[in-house]
Automatic annotation (TrEMBL):
<keyword id="KW-0472">Membrane</keyword>
<feature type="transmembrane region" description="Helical">
    <location>
        <begin position="45"/>
        <end position="62"/>
    </location>
</feature>
<dbReference type="Pfam" id="PF20134">
    <property type="entry name" value="DUF6524"/>
</dbReference>
<feature type="transmembrane region" description="Helical">
    <location>
        <begin position="74"/>
        <end position="91"/>
    </location>
</feature>
<dbReference type="InterPro" id="IPR045387">
    <property type="entry name" value="DUF6524"/>
</dbReference>
<keyword id="KW-0812">Transmembrane</keyword>
<feature type="transmembrane region" description="Helical">
    <location>
        <begin position="103"/>
        <end position="123"/>
    </location>
</feature>
<protein>
    <recommendedName>
        <fullName>Transmembrane protein</fullName>
    </recommendedName>
</protein>
<keyword id="KW-1133">Transmembrane helix</keyword>
<feature type="transmembrane region" description="Helical">
    <location>
        <begin position="12"/>
        <end position="33"/>
    </location>
</feature>
Length: 138
């Protein structure tokens, strides 16, 4: 086994990217693509371009996560996130009766699912030494 320590910077970068991808699409603060899209008809071409870009990013992310984690893994990560959210509610750190707080918790759960799908291969390679590769036929 390698004596090199695992670097958590890529995990943090993937988490930040997942948070950006999820919260740029919609968030309760009012600064998201959804709010910009429903604000009016001006800048229609820019809204279309940004929407197509966001749709492409989300399609690639979710295709990757579904291929890596499969539905059972996604269900497991979702249940862990919801348990953590319930624990925060029980200790009084989060008020889940407020709709915005509940929505923020669910959006963070989606970001955690995306992050776990993006880091799974590198963590498993570090733990087992097995590299995950996909051979593409020519």
């Amino acid at each position: 086994m390698s004596t090199v320590r695992y670097d958590w910077k890529p995990v943090a970068a993937r988490m930040l990217f997942s948070l950006f991808a999820v919260f740029s699409l919609y968030n309760p603060s009012g600064y998201s693509y959804w709010h910009w899209l429903t604000a009016g008809l001006e800048d229609g071409l820019a809204k279309l371009a940004v929407g197509l870009m966001l749709a492409g990013v989300h399609m690639v992310l979710w295709k990757t996560v579904l291929a890596v984690l499969r539905p059972r893994g996604i269900t497991f990560v979702l249940l862990l996130c919801l348990c953590a959210l319930a624990l925060l509610w029980q200790v009084g750190a989060a008020d889940l009766t407020d709709g915005d707080t509940l929505l923020l918790g669910l959006l963070v759960c989606l970001a955690v699912i995306l992050t776990s799908g993006l880091i799974y291969s590198s963590i498993m390679h570090r733990l087992t030494g097995i590299a995950h590769v996909e051979e593409v036929p020519h």
